[in-house]
Amino acid sequence: MLILGVASILVVGYFVREWMWRDIEDQIRGDALSIQSNTELYVRQILLINNCQINEDSFRKCMNDIIVQLKKTGEYEVALYDMDGEVLQRSDKNRFSGEDKRADFQRAKNKESAFTVNYGREETCEVYLTMPVQIMNQDIGIISYYMDYNNVYHQKWNSIQSILRITVLAFGIIFVLIWIMISRMVKPIRDLSRVSSAMSRWLKEGKMNDGMEADFQYCERKDEVGELSRNYVQMLRVTEEQFAKIQEDRDRILMLWNSRQEFYNNVTHELKTPLTTISGYAQLIEENGLNDEELFYNGMEHILQESTRLHRMVVQLLEMQNKESIAGVRPLNVTDLLKDVIDAMQMKAGRYENRLLLKGAGTYMIEGREDRIRQVFINLIDNAIKYGEPKKDIVISIAARARMVRIAVINKGDGMDEEELSHIFEPFYRVDKECSRELGSSGLGLAITKKIMEEHGGSIEAECSPDGYTIFKVYFPLMQKVRRKE
Question: For the sheet containing 114-119, what is the strand order?
């Protein structure tokens, strides 16, 4: 860009200078034609005034008068020569000394005028005009003029310098403006290229930088670059969102795959245990049952227990996989249903020296299947009994919360950490078998409870306090057309 600007200035300077020289030479040529016409007229007048004939001798005789008259016509220096080029008279010897006029004299002999322009180093311009004097078709001599064009040349040269200064200034301003415009256009494009390269590298590495958008800040501009920036930032946002979704889908697929694998492993393990027990006792009875009555009855008792457990597990698995819409939905008074379950569970709680306490009253109407909702309450209270400390009250509270009825089951025990709480509703997950006061749990109770709550448009959550209290909360949507009665 700089080279182009300098080259342009040099080209402009060259053409302006050529124009100046041509303009000066045109002016000189015009002045020469005028001087030539006037000179012949003045010489003729002088010869006539002096009663001289028109010839070379009369030219020599009147040369002083001719020089004086010609100098009066302008600020010139004049020299008179004969037709052979010999000096006859000069108004200023210094101006016509040492000048080689042979070429000009030769042209003058050939009846042609000639002028020579000398440009000095210090802004000077001198012109020598040599012309034949022809009067009535007679060549009577040669006249040479010295003309000083220094002022004209100086004015022209000053004009050139002014033009060049203006040109340099204009090109400088244009260069700065173009540089600013190019910088404003190129820098965003460079940033765009940098961010694009970084995004390509991050995508290849399987990650995304959330701060990419902050590295590209040209969205406030109103030109095409601003529009390109806004479109690119929007593309970055969409890319980040899609990348995040892809990562979430990947993690979800991995989690589902792991959960599925773990689910099958757990199912296999839980089914294998009772089947192994049944198979073992069946073999012993087959071999020695008739001879050992005690073995026979003990074996049959274990086979019956494990068969019941196996049947219960199969039923629970079927409940987990049931995707059909629930049937038999009707309005239910959840308070009455909860009281009924508490009364039924009091005996079991008493075996572990616990007591079930109900807090809250009122009529809360919901829609659902009574057997399924009863199973929710049984599972929650049963867990509270099995994993709670003895001689501690288990509190069940009921209250309305923003068009929802909330039932909370609170017990005191060893509690759970955050990691255990995050898996508590997964199938076959058990915190610690040693913490339970009963054996034979399948680990499906809370998973089934969660599924039942989702079937009824509700939700379930669990939390633990630092002092060991565990709280399970379930939320059922209240019927909109039935108001709660205190």
Answer: 87-90, 76-81, 138-148, 125-135, 114-119
Q: Are 432 and 449 in contact (CB under 8 A)?
A: no
Radius of gyration, CA atoms only, the chain: 60
In three-state secondary structure terms, 456 is coil
CA distance 131 to 128: 10
C-alpha to C-alpha distance for 239 and 216, rounded to whole angstroms: 15
pLDDT, tens digit only, all 486 positions of the chain: 567 666 766 776 666 667 776 777 777 778 777 887 788 888 888 888 888 888 888 888 888 888 888 877 777 788 888 877 788 888 877 777 655 566 777 777 777 777 777 776 656 777 888 888 888 778 888 888 888 777 777 777 777 777 777 877 887 788 788 878 777 667 767 777 777 777 677 666 666 565 555 555 555 666 666 677 677 777 777 777 777 787 787 777 777 666 666 556 556 656 666 677 777 778 777 777 667 777 777 777 777 877 876 776 676 666 655 554 456 788 999 999 999 999 988 888 888 889 999 998 788 999 998 888 988 998 899 889 988 888 889 999 999 988 899 999 999 888 888 888 888 887 766 665 444 445 445 567 788 888 888 888 999 999 998 888 999 999 999 987 644 444
- Provide the token pair at 397: 């509270």
Q: Strand pairing of 393-400 and 114-119?
A: unpaired
Query: Within the chain, how many helices (H) and strands (E) appear?
Result: 11, 12
φ, ψ for residue 130 (rounded to 5)?
Answer: -120, 130
Q: In whole angstroms, what is the distance from residue 407 CA to residue 101 CA?
A: 129
* DSSP-assigned states of every residue in 158-206: HHHHHHHHHHHHHHHHHHHHHHHHHHHHHHHHHHHHHHHHHHHHHHHTT
Contact between 335 and 362 (Cβ < 8 Å): yes
The answer to whether the pTM exceeds 0.85 is: no
| CA pair distance 177, 171, nearest whole angstrom | 10
Please report, as a single letter, which amino acid is at residue 146.
Y
Angle (CA) 108-109-115 rounded to 5° is 15
What the chain holds in terms of domains, given with CATH numbers, is: 2-159 (3.30.450.20), 327-477 (3.30.565.10)
